[in-house]
Amino acid sequence: MRRAIISDIHANLVALEAVLDDCARQNLDDVVCLGDICGYGPDPIQCVDLVRAKCKWTLGGNHDAALFMSVAVGFNRFAREAIDWQRSLMLPHWYSLAHAVERWQWLENLPSKRVEGQILYVHASPRDSLLEYVEEGDFVDMGFGPSQKAVEIFEMFNQLCFCGHTHRPGVVTDKYVWSGLDKLPFLTYALQTGVKTLVNVGSVGQPRDNNPLSCYVIYDDRAETITFRRVAYDIAAAQERFKSISQLSERLWRRLETGT
Fold first, then answer.
1. Which candidate in 10, 127, 187, 243 could, as Cys together with 205 as Cys, close a disulfide (CB 3.0–4.6 Å)?
2. Cα four-point dihedral sign 62, 63, 68, 74
3. Is the Cβ–Cβ distance between 47 and 12 less than 8 Å?
4. CA-based nearest residue to 235, from 211, 260, 257
């Protein structure tokens, strides 16, 4: 199986289309999504419809879940304003067409984790599949061995885990050493037999590892490899779409230029 795993689209349609075009050239068996289709960006409806059409299955992220809160708790002002606007755009009314109602109900019922054999797929973390961040700093040894958080993360899955949420791609094993993409030759990681491995797949629509290119991974279970793909997209065109929505802060489109 060759599977593309995408995450954290954040209503950036220009980036999503570029990534899916790249996926179409990779001889894949399927594409799956780890959530946060919504939040931050200008095109939540188009992104949801495209993910539904192209992905075998999809998880829900914390921004997706926030659409169904009366108040988006735990979000900064810029993220909350984007969620509030997207909710006003997508929430069905009595006069809404059937496909709008179906879209909303589909989003509401997305799970935040999925298990397939020895593989755990989560939006955020094995310990908290919706909200907890798994950061490189969680695996820094300060001279006292691995943190309790790091140990518990690896206790929560059997062999392999894919996550998103942080927008920062990388790989960490149960040896508690984080490998960023700068440490992966050809952006490929060879899985090791008997070694638990967690993979952050990065972000399609809001990269934050100081690289503005969209990021996703291809998992090849025959070759036992994880390959990260960085995809260029028309950032200027995406920014123009952001600018057309007054409820979206300038901060949200400025950061696309730098991947921060």
1. 10
2. positive
3. yes
4. 257
Q: Which helix (H) or strand (E) holds 220?
A: strand 214-220
**Are the CB atoms for 107 and 60 separated by under 8 Å?**
yes
- Spatial distance between the Cα atoms of 215 and 149, rounded to a whole number of angstroms: 26
pLDDT at 145: 83
Tokens 């950032």 label which residue?
235
pLDDT band at 144 (very low <50, low <70, confident <90, very high): confident
What are the backbone angles phi and psi of residue 230, rounded to the nearest 5°?
A: -105, 130
The string of pLDDT tens digits covering residues 52-94 is: 999 999 999 999 999 999 877 789 999 999 999 999 999 999 9
The SS3 assignment for 185 reads helix
pTM of the model: 0.97
Q: Is the pLDDT of residue 139 over 80?
A: yes
Full set of structural domains in the chain with CATH: 2-257 (3.60.21.10)
